[in-house]
Specification:
heterodimer, A: 71 residues, five-stranded antiparallel β-sheet, B: alpha+beta, 2 domains, globular
Chain lengths: 71, 157
């Protein structure tokens, strides 16, 4: 399934954000989306934050991801 | 361009998603990335195995067109038209995803309005998106390109 998983930003330091995926964290660059803030749900592509997702949409998506395995 | 290369270019953004989802490893993604960048031809059965959801839909398109799954006509019809229809019709898991998501996942064709190092701004309709030139390095301002998620994919004359 071609839908990215949204993660939640828990930390921003200079150009790098820590993004939490249900307990697992990854680091992504904010260079392309400088307006992100802690608490935002985002999609990361190739280690860049590409898109901010409204919280309600993101939470719904995460719920679906946890229920499905289709790729 | 061979059908395998064409398919892989459009699917490459999704490979990142597959890593997030744990269906493929970071090493596999890197291998796929090298294959895209160096125009290597991957085996059809491996591509079908890596991207089962895409192939389920492509098979439907092929049946409707009465053509082979791996014909360029079918692949082009899928990525440039049907793929977005499936998203709009909210087929399968797409149903559970909101508007912002669906927009990000569609393939859109727009014009390059800015380029800075390996980052492009692409405008389509009233929208503007930032994408990477990683798999389409030879583009300039004014070019018409397709974008999929965070990547520019194909240049149109």
């Amino acid at each position: 399934m071609c839908l990215a998983i949204p993660g939640k930003i828990t930390k921003i330091e200079k150009d790098l954000a820590t993004v939490d995926y249900d307990g697992e964290t990854r680091v992504a660059s904010i260079a392309l989306k400088k307006d992100v803030k802690i608490g935002d749900y985002v999609i990361v592509n190739a280690k860049f934050i590409m898109q901010i997702i409204p919280e309600e949409e993101a939470k719904k998506a995460i719920k679906v991801w946890n229920l499905t395995d289709e790729a | 361009m061979k059908p395998e290369q064409y398919f892989l270019k459009y699917s490459f953004p999704c490979a990142h998603v597959l890593v997030e989802h744990g269906s493929i490893t970071e090493e596999k993604l890197e291998e796929i990335r090298q294959n895209v960048i160096y125009d290597k031809i991957m085996k059809r059965d491996e591509l079908e195995f890596l991207f089962p959801a895409a192939f389920r839909r492509i098979r439907d398109v092929a049946v409707k067109m009465n053509k082979d799954v791996w014909s360029m006509e079918v692949l082009k019809k899928y990525f440039l038209e049907e793929h977005n229809h499936y998203i709009e019709q909210q087929e399968g898991n797409y149903a559970s995803f909101g508007k912002t998501f669906r927009e990000f996942c569609k393939v859109n064709i727009g014009k390059v309005t800015a380029k800075e190092a390996d980052i492009l701004t692409v405008r389509y309709g009233d929208k503007e998106r930032i994408v990477l030139t990683e798999i389409l390095p030879d583009v300039k301002i004014g070019d018409k390109v397709s974008i999929h998620q965070g990547f520019a994919v194909e240049k149109f004359e």
